[in-house]
Amino acid sequence: MTMHPATDPLRFEILGAVRAIRDGAPLDLGPAKQRAVLAVLLLSPGRPVPVHRIVDAVWGDVPPENGTNVVQKYVAGLRRVLDPDRSPRTPGELIALTDGGYVLHAGALDTEDFRTGLARADAERRGGDLEEAARRARIALDLWRGEALSGLTGGVFEAARLRLSEERASAWELWAEIELSRGGFAGLVSELSRLVQEFPLREGLRAQLMIALYRSGRQAEALAAFRDAREYFLDELGAEPGERLQETHRRILRNEPFYAEPVDPWADRAEPTPPPSSPAPPPPPPPPAADPVSVQPWSPAPYAPAIPHQPPAPAWPPPAVMPGHLMSPRRTGIPVVEAVVAGVLPVVTCSMASWAYFVYAAFQRRTLRDVLTAVFYVTAYLTAIFFLAIDPSDLESETTSAAEDVGFTLMFLIIPVAAVHGAILACHPGDNRGARTRRQLARQFAAIHPDGARQAGIGRPDLLRSFDDGGLVDLNHVPPQEIARLRGVSPIEAHRIALDRYEHGPYQSPEDLARRGLLTDRTLRRIQPWLICVPPGQVAPPSAIR
């Protein structure tokens, strides 16, 4: 079986570096920006993409002066490469311009083949043909050639890369589920160990590794894998492992069998009894037919792996307490040590290292203002050195040259200016690598455990919390006054954002603010690194509350 038949002359791939292939040969897509424009269109195949969104994705905070003309030039270049025999503005062109923007009519795309292959594998698994299911799942996973959208940078591509990475992790869980159902326990240990290293936050893979070790007769190693997982989650997230890992651990301790029945290792668990006052849930729909042609394209659940042995949720609401410290303790106050070092360094080095803290701050914060500040101090120091070196006086001379006078004057001027400026800068930390890392960890945690994210208060600076999520603001839960604290957002705009989420539903992503006309694209780009949209929880019906 092949996922890309030879009858399709043009095929696009984004599960790795962006490529276009015709008749088995890759095409030269031109400069990097032109490939990035194609990647933006491939992320929304068959749907119009406005020009301003292409500009935002490809150029970010430094858009070209005439973005429309630049995008038009790159689209024309793509048309010449992808569809050289068709004249522009003719019916059926590969990249068409509509009222809503540019539309790419992609015939074959590896992400669609990936999802369709996994849907067929899941259908075969539920139909009982585990060998065929494993083969189809592995073929779909083999479509990955490395990191998705490799070589492309920017917020849009990073978000897409994270979503595709989650899909890939869910696909590996599906494949491991099928292989465990087939009984191949010993042969899975090394592969699952590698996957746990690649996707350390996926509890499903860790649980499957524990089961594979346990069924291979290595119970002590399975229990050690749980201890390692628990230590990792406590160190990195400040939270205990989820119910699935803990239940797997309990069953191993009780020497209970896994996969004694085909497919579902949790089949012997009793479903929770619903509260007497709430109506009984309707019976689940029958499983789909195993016909691989009739399955729908596979799409993983956005916040949980699409595999069958997720333990059922309890019938009672979770306790409204915070599960420990997430990431690192919350930092408050002024970083005294950093401020002292920044202020003292130019003095004790006689201006020789006056530039060092500003270079460090630019590397940490990565903003244009901090980079320009570092460039200024480095240039000032080099200028002083230049004047000291161009006309040095003799060692026996009692006077200095005019150039040396200028150099020494610059050096002595830099000392107080750099000391005061560095101390003030250190007292206002702003954004830094540590905060960005904590925001990334918090986003990953919220993507995998939205209930835990709501319970812990990720993105809720209005709550009393003992952890630091890097300054995230949850658009779906924070009050308007917290939204108004964001740079460039007025109190009126903050009120509109809070009102809109109640009138038109929660936000799926920060981009919804621009789609709904609540913020300009420029303002959204400025604050997007601090935004998160944690999905709201299910509200119990009034009859179920007593």
UniProtKB/TrEMBL annotation:
Q: CDD domains in the record, alphabetically?
A: BTAD (cd15831)
**Family matches, as InterPro entries:** AfsR-DnrI-RedD_regulator (IPR051677), BTAD (IPR005158), OmpR/PhoB-type_DNA-bd (IPR001867), Sig_transdc_resp-reg_C-effctor (IPR016032), TPR-like_helical_dom_sf (IPR011990), WH-like_DNA-bd_sf (IPR036388)
DNA-binding region at which residues?
A: 1-106
Q: Where is this region: Disordered?
A: 263-295
Composition bias type Pro residues, residue spans? 272-290
PROSITE patterns referenced in this protein's UniProt entry, alphabetically? OMPR_PHOB
Domain OmpR/PhoB-type spans what residues? 1-106
Q: Which UniProt keywords apply?
A: DNA-binding, Membrane, Transcription, Transcription regulation, Transmembrane, Transmembrane helix
What residue ranges are annotated as transmembrane?
A: 339-359, 371-390, 410-430
From the UniProt record, give one GO term of the biological process aspect.
Answer: phosphorelay signal transduction system
Q: Under the GO molecular function aspect, what terms does this record hold?
A: DNA binding
Q: Which family does it belong to?
A: Belongs to the AfsR/DnrI/RedD regulatory family.
Q: Which PANTHER family match?
A: TRANSCRIPTIONAL REGULATOR REDD, TRANSCRIPTIONAL REGULATOR REDD-RELATED
Q: What is this protein called?
A: DNA-binding SARP family transcriptional activator
Give the organism the record lists.
Answer: Actinoplanes lobatus
